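Page 37, continued from 36.
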C-alpha cells in the first residue's frame, strides 16, 4: 500500500465556465489532493528529496489556476490539477483530486469533481522515459507498487464523480398534520457517476457531448422537488433519482436527502440511495414501488 502526501482544502482563484460572465470573473476553487508515493527513503534519511515536495505541488497548482489556461469545465481543470501534482516528482504513482467550486450553484454548498489518476493514466507511462520503461527489467517491488497504486483508486479506477453538495430546497414532506401544511427545508446531495475512458491517456474532455451538466441536473431536481408533496423521504429520493436519470440522461446517481427538522436531538435524518438507468427500465414497477411507500406512511 502506497504512502500519501496530502494537500487539504487549498484555495485558489481561477477562470472557469462557458458564458461571458464566468469568463470575466475569478471564481474560488477549493482543492484536496492526495499524491500516492513512498516516503520510505525520506523517513530513513530524513531528507525531503526522498519524498514529494508538497510546497512545490502547491505552487504548481496555484500557477495553473492563475495562468491563462483557457479551460472551460471544472472536470478538465481537475484533471490538469492531477497532472500538476503528480508531475512534481517521478516517485509519484497516483493522485486523488477533489476540486469544489462553492459559487457554482446559487442554492448549493458547492459543485465538485472527484477523480483518481495513475501516472500512466496522465502521461501514458509509469516513468518519465517510456522507452526506458519498455526496455528495462523492472524489479518485482516496482511492479507490485504500481499494481497497488491502481487498486488504491477503488471505484474511481473506472469512474469519475461529479458532486452537488447540499442543494437546499423547500417542499412539503412528512406524515404529520403540520408537515402537510408547511414546507420544510431539505438538504439534497447528488453524486453523478460517469464512466472513465480507458483508451490510453485519454482523460476528462473539456468539451463533451453529454446531454447533462450539473446546472441542468440541479435545475431539473429543484423544479421537481419544490412541486412535490411526498410523505416519505424514501419516495422523494427515488423520484429525484428518476428525474436525473430519465430527464437529464445521467447514467448513474447517488442521492442523499437530509431532513434537518426530523429528529429533535440529531442534526438530521437522511436517506441515501444509488440508482442507474437499469433500475428505471421498468417504470411501472418503480411507480408502484413509490406508491406503496406513500400508502404505507
Amino acid at each position: 500500500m502506497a504512502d500519501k502526501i496530502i494537500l487539504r482544502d487549498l484555495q485558489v482563484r481561477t477562470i472557469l465556465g462557458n458564458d461571458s460572465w464566468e469568463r470575466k470573473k475569478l471564481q474560488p476553487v477549493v482543492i484536496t489532493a492526495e499524491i500516492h508515493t513512498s516516503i520510505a527513503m525520506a523517513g530513513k534519511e530524513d531528507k525531503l528529496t526522498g519524498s514529494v515536495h508538497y510546497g512545490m505541488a502547491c505552487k504548481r497548482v496555484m500557477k495553473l489556476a492563475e495562468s491563462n489556461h483557457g479551460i472551460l469545465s471544472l472536470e478538465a481543470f481537475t484533471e490538469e490539477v492531477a497532472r500538476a501534482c503528480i508531475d512534481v516528482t517521478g516517485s509519484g504513482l497516483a493522485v486523488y483530486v477533489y476540486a469544489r467550486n462553492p459559487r457554482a450553484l446559487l442554492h448549493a454548498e458547492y459543485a465538485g469533481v472527484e477523480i483518481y489518476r495513475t501516472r500512466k493514466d496522465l502521461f501514458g507511462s509509469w516513468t518519465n522515459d517510456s522507452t526506458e520503461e519498455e526496455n528495462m527489467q523492472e524489479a518485482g517491488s516496482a511492479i507490485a507498487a504500481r499494481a497497488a497504486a491502481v487498486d488504491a483508486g477503488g471505484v474511481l479506477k473506472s469512474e469519475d464523480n461529479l458532486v452537488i453538495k447540499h442543494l437546499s430546497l423547500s417542499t412539503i414532506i412528512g406524515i404529520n398534520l403540520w408537515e402537510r401544511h408547511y414546507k420544510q427545508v431539505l438538504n439534497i446531495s447528488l453524486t453523478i457517476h460517469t464512466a472513465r475512458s480507458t483508451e490510453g491517456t485519454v482523460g476528462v474532455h473539456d468539451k463533451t457531448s453529454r446531454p447533462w451538466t450539473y446546472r441542468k441536473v440541479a435545475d431539473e431536481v429543484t423544479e421537481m422537488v419544490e412541486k412535490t408533496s411526498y410523505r416519505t423521504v424514501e419516495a422523494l429520493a427515488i423520484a429525484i433519482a428518476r428525474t436525473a436519470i430519465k430527464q437529464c440522461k445521467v447514467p448513474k446517481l447517488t442521492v442523499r436527502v437530509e431532513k434537518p427538522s426530523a429528529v429533535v436531538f440529531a442534526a438530521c435524518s437522511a436517506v441515501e440511495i444509488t440508482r442507474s438507468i437499469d433500475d428505471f427500465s421498468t417504470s411501472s414497477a418503480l411507480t408502484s414501488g413509490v406508491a406503496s411507500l406513500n400508502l404505507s406512511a
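The CA atoms of residues 159 and 196 lie 5 Å apart. Flag for discussion at group meeting. Confidence is low (pLDDT under 50) at residues 130-137, 199-203, 284-297.
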